[in-house]
Amino acid sequence: RKEVEQDPGPFNVPEGATVAFNCTYSNSASQSFFWYRQDCRKEPKLLMSVYSSGNEDGRFTAQLNRASQYISLLIRDSKLSDSATYLCVVHAGKSTFGDGTTLTVKP
Amino acid sequence: EPEVTQTPSHQVTQMGQEVILRCVPISNHLYFYWYRQILGQKVEFLVSFYNNEISEKSEIFDDQFSVERPDGSNFTLKIRSTKLEDSAMYFCASSAQGVKNTGELFFGEGSRLTVL
Lengths: 107, 116
Prior knowledge:
Oligomer: heterodimer
Order of helices and strands of chain A: EEEEEEEEEEE
Largest sheet of chain A: 6 strands, mixed
Helix content of chain A: under 10%
Low-confidence stretches of chain B: none
Largest sheet of chain B: 7 strands, mixed
Radius of gyration of chain B: 13 Å
Number of helices of chain B: 0
Number of strands of chain A: 11
Structural class of chain A: mainly beta
Number of strands of chain B: 11
């Protein structure tokens, strides 16, 4: 089993759509959780941390379920500029990246 | 905004040559990392470095690889004898220390290594 597993994607959605990405992790001792965004041939950039109580940043909502070892990212009212690869990252001593889920938002 | 800087942005080398990739982490960060990403593949952890020593390394980080913090600002990754499969984008990252160390990583723009 992969340490961090994400929806394989790709996701192709129209502008304005709501899209959700899922991620599971295998290490129950994992301490911190993040969603990063990576544009083509660029470095990953932090989108948001994921807290146990769930957190929201504008159109983005992240959820964590420690019991199920599951993380999610919801994007509402998607924009063309949201097109990117979304990386689930789990930190347990070291940060482990999922394979990423590619989102393309179309006009 | 403080940032991680990497040089060179792109290096082309012949198989068997030594390569040194350089990074200047964010100045008040004390945890440093190298990751690599082969074209079209996932970001892979190579090594983490703290207090002038390796704190963790992956299976990828074999004897061909080494890291060093030669002075107070640079953090280098050396590949002794490059192989074709070392061709990848190498990302340096840093993170804060102690209670502020939530594991949030700040990445440089990467150094693309092409081995011919």
